[in-house]
Predict the structure.
Amino acid sequence: MSDGLLSMSKTERDRAATMHLIASKTIGQSVAAERLGISLRQVNRLYKDWKEGGDGCLVSKQRGRVSPKRMADGKRRKVEALLREKYPDFGATLAAEKMAENDNLVVSRETVRKIQIECGLARAKRRKSGRVHQPRERRPRFGELIQIDGSPHDWFEGRGPKCTLIVFIDDATGRLTALHFSPTETTSAYLEALRAHVLVHGRPLALYSDRHGIFRVNAKDAATGDGLTEFGRVVGRLKIQNIKAMTPQAKGRVERANQTLQDRLVKEMRLKAVSSMEQAQAFAEQFISIWNGKFARVPLDPNDAHRPWTNGEAALDEAMARRENRTLSKNLTFSLDGRIFSVVPYGTGMGMRYAKVSILLYRSGEMRVRYRERDLAFALVQTRPSYGDIEDEKTISARLDDIVAQAALEDA
């Protein structure tokens, strides 16, 4: 093979070999066109050029020329500097967006990706091989199904404490409807996110969660009670169905959203120097608007499936209050969470002995004692020793972090 052929691309070498076959009358031009995947007219033109100039005329005239679309050297150096200093761990898409938004520098994401690879800031991704999960069609209406999950993560990258983000995302549109930061994944955290969702959008038809003890009673030997968790009782009062997923892949919309949030939201908060749950919660509403403007899609059915909440915030807080039933003693006392309370009766109180009352515990810390639709006055009379809270796998890490921090303060 000649040096000229060695410098040619595979396509150009194939064309040169085909021209030789045409010249030797081994094949006709129509067969050559089929082999090369070009038109008969183009084969005829190439053959005429080849007869006059030989194999060299088949080499592209653009070889060695600078593309007119090539990025100017000064602009490229600026892009490289921003990628190294300001956006070193950003994905190509997010880096391109932020350079356009913050630095007035418009560069395509594929150009950014190419520069990142050339600078060693990224590597070309290989296609992953794994189990294929059959996709489920989206629900047609906004508010039919809200997928919910908690995402524990170092959201502040060491600038603040590790915490959990409670995520509510609509199945039909991919819209984020609520984000709530909490120290751990708890019933209270989910109720805060649900409250925010209901006040803005109304009551959805159903929530789609995992099978954690927040959402279902997992004790196999549970023989008493109504079979519902506190979260289950609240959504029941609000007439919202709570559906539990069999696998994480079944609620893939919120699982994928968690991955994207751990990338995009973390970097957005880094750029804005957000370093506490209070600051993050204040920023959450703005980020929801950014997310929905970029990722939300139009539902198949434009009718909203939410049922408006028209009873006001006070009624919603009461619906979300934890409820405990107690029977008053002969002395009109009852116990709750290691404390003994005494109610103030109407009149002599003789008729209230052994009466059944409902205790309403609001998320704000307020407590009410209700008897026959009336709220009774009460007073704390005794506090019993506490044996400590019970922790599970989703709260033990946060509890230990508090213990370690307290020990460090005591040793200082």
Observations:
- The chain has 13 helices and eleven strands.
- The chain has a mean pLDDT of 89.
